[in-house]
Design goal:
Elements: H1 2-7, H2 16-25, H3 36-44, H4 55-63, E1 77-78, H5 93-104, H6 106-126, E2 144-145, H7 149-168
Parallel strand pairs: 1-2
């Protein structure tokens, strides 16, 4: 939405141009997906042929042999950080702390990249020269775009309500 706003004269403080542009594109949109599994299923079974999705999800699909490819905007790819936390006042604080410590452990943090590289290497051995873009060490093209997430967070509820009211409910 922010990209549509920026391309049409807006930005974080002025998203109307983005919503207006999306309203003109809406008739051509099959589905505004609401879960990663839904997006994966639509792409894998041919119900959708293009969509905006996270590169880690698409890369996992490629590694699993799905008929999915990745493309990145030339003017940059948005960088999404990962986070973990506990619900304040949880009744299972010790268990939550144990999970957080597990997830933040260096061995665990390095596991996913190792698994991806191993699967990519295996696919490369099976089909030399056919190594998909998703296996590159640095996913994405162009610059990494770092949005002002703190500012975005202030508008998230408002934008979500507007999205549901103007885009997905009609």
């Amino acid at each position: 939405m922010l990209k549509l706003a920026a391309l049409n004269g807006g930005g974080i403080d002025k998203v109307d141009p983005g919503f207006k542009k999306l309203a003109t594109l809406k008739p051509n949109v099959l589905t505004f997906w609401s879960s990663h599994d839904q997006m994966a299923n639509m792409l894998n079974n041919g119900d959708a042929w293009i969509g905006v999705w996270a590169s880690d999800r698409a890369g996992t699909q490629v590694l699993q042999g799905a008929p999915v490819g990745l493309a990145y905007p030339q003017d940059g790819t948005v960088l999404f950080g990962n986070g973990i936390g506990m619900v304040k006042g949880t009744k299972h604080k010790a268990l939550a702390e144990k999970y957080v410590n597990f997830a933040l452990d260096a061995a665990q943090q390095n596991q996913l990249p190792r698994e991806r590289r191993a699967r990519a290497d295996e696919q490369e051995r099976e089909a030399p020269g056919q190594r998909p873009e998703a296996h590159a060490e640095r996913q994405g093209a162009g610059e990494l775009v770092h949005p002002d997430w703190e500012k975005i967070a202030k508008f998230t509820s408002e934008w979500t309500e507007r999205w549901q009211r103007e885009i997905t409910s009609k």
